[in-house]
Amino acid sequence: MTQDFKVVWARSAVQDLASIVAYIGEQSPANARQTLLKIKKAVSELNHSPHRGRFVPELHRQGILLYRELVITPWRVQ
Predict the structure, then answer these.
(1) What is the pLDDT of residues 14-60, one digit of tens each?
(2) Where are the domains of the chain?
(3) Residue 26 contacts residue 34 (beta carbons within 8 Å)
(4) Strands of the chain, DSSP E
(5) What are the φ and ψ backbone dihedral angles of 76, each rounded to 5 degrees?
(6) CB within 8 A of 65, min separation 6: which ones?
(7) SS3 category, 67
(8) Fewer CB within 10 Å: N-end or C-end of the chain?
(9) Spatial separation of the C-alpha atoms in residues 3 and 49, rounded to whole Å
(10) Residue 53 in contact with residue 70, Cβ under 8 Å?
(11) Helices 29-44 and 11-27, interaxial angle, to 10°?
(12) pLDDT in the model for residue 13
C-alpha cells in the first residue's frame, strides 16, 4: 500500500496559475481549460509520487536538493 502525501499550493502559485489561464483564455478559452487541467493533473500526481520531477537546476548548482520541479512545457512547477 502506498502512502499518500498532501500537495499544498502556495498562494503565489495559485495566483500564477490563474494569471496563466486568464492570459491563454484571452485567445482561446478551450486552450486555457486544457492548460489548467494538464497542470492540475500533473501536480495532483505528486500525492502518490512526491519525488517525481527533477531538482531545480539553479538550486542544484548551489547544492540545494530540497526542492524539485515538474516541467509541463513551457512551464515549470516548483
Answers:
(1) 999 999 999 999 999 999 999 999 999 999 998 888 888 899 999 99
(2) 11-77
(3) no
(4) 54-55, 68-72, 75-77
(5) -120, 130
(6) 55, 59
(7) coil
(8) N
(9) 9
(10) yes
(11) 150
(12) 92
